[in-house]
Amino acid sequence: MGIKEAIKTAIHQKSKIVPYNDMTISYCQCTDCPTHPQCKKDEVVFCSAGESASRPTMTAKGCDCGECEVFKKYNLDTGYFCMNGEAK
User: Fold this and answer.
1) CA distance 28 to 57
2) What is the span of the domain harbouring residue 42?
3) Number of domains in the chain
4) Percent of the chain that is helix, strand, coil (3-state, to 5)
5) Angstrom distance (rounded) from CA 39 to CA 71
6) 3-state secondary structure at position 83
7) Which residues, including other chains, have CB under 8 Å from residue 35's CB and lie 6 or more apart?
8) pLDDT tens-place values along the chain, 88 residues long
């Protein structure tokens, strides 16, 4: 892991299960989520980074987490990480 990758991980990763790195960012499907349509590329991989900063204004409208490669790779069993926080 390079220095840039280590800094990115240290700043964003809260989960002890899912890393916040270039691989998980590239597989992440958060930007297609019906619950978090305002999601941007700088706020993704909620299963690692924890709930969205927009959480107070969000309403559950469906969850695509189960279709995500990150979800499958790390055998996650819940969803709505953008609302409920990181995988634990």
Assistant:
1) 22
2) 3-84
3) 1
4) 45, 0, 55
5) 18
6) helix
7) 58, 59, 60, 61, 62, 63, 80, 82, 83
8) 565 555 555 567 888 899 999 899 999 988 888 888 776 666 889 999 999 988 898 899 999 999 999 999 999 999 999 999 999 9
